[in-house]
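Protocol step 4 of 6.
Sequence for 33 kDa chaperonin (Desulfurobacterium indicum) entered exactly as in the expression construct, tag removed. Do not edit the line below.
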Amino acid sequence: MLKRLDEQVKKDFKEYFKDRDYGVIAVTEEDAIRVFAIRTTNLTEIARLKHGLFPLSAVVLGRTMAGVILLTTLIKHGTDQRILLRIEGDGPAGLVVAEVNGKGEVRGFIQNKHIETATKDVNGKKKFDVRSAVGKGTLTVIKDLGLKTPYESSVPLISGEIAEDIAYYLLKSEQIPSAVSLGVLIGEDGKVKAAGGFIVQPLPGAKEESIAKIEKTVKNLPPVTEMLTSDKRPEDIVEEVLKGFGVNVLALKELSFRCRCSKETAMQSLLMLPVEELEKLIEEGGAEITCNFCSTVYYFTPEEIKNVIKLKETGDN
Ligand SMILES: [Zn+2]
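Step 5 output, structure tokens:
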């Protein structure tokens, strides 16, 4: 569905998506440079609320979730193929994980939900110090394309700001040179005010001079959160990035926070416990299993735990 990005198309997008999260994938008319721009404000706020995150924790997880969404150009659109981004640094954030499928359903968690706020001065403005919160360590991407074994690849964290680290991964592991920008802005009230990002990738056949031109544009762009708070939408960001080029829209992606967990999957974790432990839980009056990815709590009565033991004993699992 190659569609020229003009005023009518922009009006249609605005009406269709309103305040919902979504992304726009577009290419230059020469079909050689691709941009994927996303707005993830709502899904980041939902993650913040579900997990009860402090501001800096919300920023780190928000960037990770937006980052994994930008990686969906590596999987098939609209499918159950999945991509998972794992950031393991030695900073206070601890383990940070986000996962998305081809339908734009994302979920994620951060080990330290309550990182103490640390800021640094950037051009006279106070910014959250994401780099110190993440620290040094590794970035791992796991692609589950529905084949026998998922594809997994790791690179060292070179920055800790997450966007640069994703660009480094794409270059090293996928041989795709990319420019990545991510941002999460927390308001005075502690709520997520804006979140999103974009990725630019030259496709085979891109002209050197076009790449250089876009690189220069990207360097001079305001931060992505500033663009989103000044009412710019993903399609506007695409236009800003590709200023001076004709732009065609390739695809739209609706984005949402959605976890795959259920009482069924929670029961799977009970099934993995030894019988003695399950008997202890029965004595204690039941068990609570919390999903890492969305903090939903599943309650199991002693009666239900007895059934789990039965299942274990019949080996019917
Ligand atoms: Zn869940």
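Step 6, annotate. Residues 67 and 197 are 8 Å apart (CA to CA).
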